[in-house]
Amino acid sequence: MKTNRLDFIDIVRSVAIIMMLEGHFMTLSLQPVFRDPENPIYNFWKFSRGITAPLFLSISGLIFTYLLLKNKTQGWNNLRVQKGFKRTGVLILLGYLLQFNLYTHFFGDRPLFTGLTQIFHVLQCIGLSLFLLISLYLFNHYILKISLGILLGVLGLLVFIISPTIYELDYQYIPRFVENILVVSKNTNLNTSVFPIFPWCGYVFMGGALGGLIVKLKDKAHHFAFPFGLIALGFIIKYLTYPILTGIQYLPGFSSLKPFQYEYEPVRFSQVLIFIGIIVLVQKFVLKIKEAKQLQMPPLVFHVLLVVSFALGCYSFTFPLETTSQNIIAYTLFFVPIVITLWKLTGWNYTTFLNIGQNTLSVYVFHVILLYQGFFGFKFGSYLKDNLNPFFAIAGAITFVFFFLAWTQYEPVLVNQLQRLKVRIKVVKRKIQYRTSSI
Q: What is the 3-state secondary structure (H, E, C) of 282-349?
């Protein structure tokens, strides 16, 4: 390839951030009465919601390790090391800042520092995990000198294994914010962390192991066999996790740990591997179809199909939707043409789709500000909370996602305008200083 960046990594990141936006909007807005565990549609959505965070953390470790090892200069002088340490500081700082609420502090009676400001969320988790990953990279480069991918894979599994034991330790005499960094506190009288290091940094390490494997494979990672290999590896891990962990439980040094053979994290990572493999396969098939121009549908036929689908969808909603299949058909016929039409009207394409995967930090920060009153305390999310039925929740989620697709497209323009404004301000200041000194 001409660049160090693999397209499928950005595609998976784009899919993960879109799943996060949709998932957070739906979770916040959907009325509780529709959250039925016995509904297969809700269960499927809940599964996809649950895989989003492990996917995103794994991809963070994958892309960073891949770029770290692909750099021609290794060791401390590796540019990715310098950038990585700066990035970790930014992530941790932003993570804590987003837990402030300036509105309620200045216009209410809420103190600036609350229990929320002490919890450890996803940005802090990724930041500290990447810091540990870089430290391990340097330690391995100068001292251990073994495969970084193998080291990260072993440590990732070890994090999953010792997490139950770390959770059961006594944190009575440890500061609350330190406990929140390590585990989800058993003391639920105060706010507890959502993404503590144990077990979540294990996903970053396991993703790093996958990144090391991709570097070893080189051009083979672009072959059709690669996604099939990921899917096969995912199923192997899924079905062998319990017997392997059960065997490890009886080894010397591990038998004294809290039971870990039922830990779900390795299985969840296997699902991440399967998901990534499917995404890579879809990408390759789509590109093949684009190359085979004879398979392309005439525009008129395509537009007619969209109109027919939308009309059938509208017609479906005139009848009571009593079964799961009826709901799936009606919502698919109605919303898929809307999504495709919005995609066409806004001019999005393969390149612009990759942009959202390359700008995940700004998307995450902005969406927290909008939905969860992060930092500024905007109450947009409070008006939506538990207020929408499935139809309007889905429509809102689609709108929310396309808003951020537009945001990633026009953010560089906004940043450029701000840079130009800064330059103009400096020029004006210099003119004022020159006139003042001449007087």
A: HHHHHHHHHHCHHHCCCHHHHHHHHHHHHHHHHHHCCCCCCCHHHHHHHHHHHHHHHHHHHHHHCCCC
User: Which residues face 375 on adjacent strands?
Assistant: 101
> 153 and 206 in contact (C-beta within 8 Å)?
yes
Distance in angstroms (rounded) separating the CA atoms of residues 152 and 160: 12
Secondary structure (3-state) at 376: coil
Residues 129, 132: Cα–Cα separation, whole Å: 5
End-to-end CA distance of the chain: 61
Residue 28: its H or E element: helix 7-29
Sign of the Cα torsion 425, 431, 437, 439 reads: negative
The answer to whether the bond into 199 is cis (omega within 30° of 0) is yes
User: 33: burial class by Cβ within 10 Å (0-12, 13-18, 19+)?
Assistant: exposed
Instruction: Report, in angstroms and rounded to the nearest whole number, the Rg of the chain calculated over CA atoms.
Output: 24
Rounded Cα distance, 26 and 386, in Å: 9
pTM: 0.91
Under 8 Å between Cβ of 82 and 68:
no
Which one, of 207, 213, 237, 244, lies nearest residue 226 by Cα? 213
For residue 101, the 8-state DSSP code is B
CB atoms within 10 A of CB 216: 12
Cα 273 off chain centre by: 15
- Given a contact cutoff of 8 angstroms between Cβ atoms, the answer to whether 181 and 35 are in contact is no
Bridge partners of residue 388, in order along the sequence: 30
- Cβ-contact 63, 211 below 8 angstroms: yes
Cα separation of 238 and 236, whole Å?
Answer: 5
Could you list the mean pLDDT of each consecutive 10-residue stretch along the chain, which spans 439 residues?
A: 62 92 95 92 93 95 94 93 95 94 83 84 96 97 95 96 94 91 88 93 97 90 90 95 91 89 89 95 83 72 92 93 91 94 82 83 93 88 92 96 87 78 82 70
Which residues, 6+ apart, have CB-to-CB distance to 219 below 8 Å? none
Residue among 195, 85, 70, 93 nearest 130 (CA): 85
Three-state DSSP state, 328: helix
Q: Take residue 59 and report the two structure tokens written for it.
A: 């991809």
